[in-house]
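Lecture 7 notes: from sequence to structure.
We start with the chain below.
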Amino acid sequence: MRIKLVGPCASGKSVLAARLRALGYDARSAAQDHSYVPDMWQRLNPPDLLVYLDVTLRSARERGRSGMGWTQAYLDEQHWRLRHARAHCDFYLPTDDLTEEQVLAETLAFLSQLQ
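Predicted structure tokens for the same chain:
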């Protein structure tokens, strides 16, 4: 099963993808948040499962995203670019109050329901 992870910067996509791959899953993050092509996530290596990780500006800043235009308007722009993926995701997870381990656990719990 091919799993694609999308979400704004600092939502945890890269970390989750690496942890899922370490467990044997075919998981990759997509840079949909930087693309103006709404369905790019579908066009390039279409996934069997789409996971959307979300984050607020407060949490993004706590995770080191600051300066260089990191404002609410910038995050809103990323959310706008991700609107198609958000509407079509199989699993939506706000990661603000979760540790990396909790994000992995929540995702694995969702995946276990599919088997």
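Points to note: The chain has six helices and four strands. The two ends are 11 Å apart (CA to CA).
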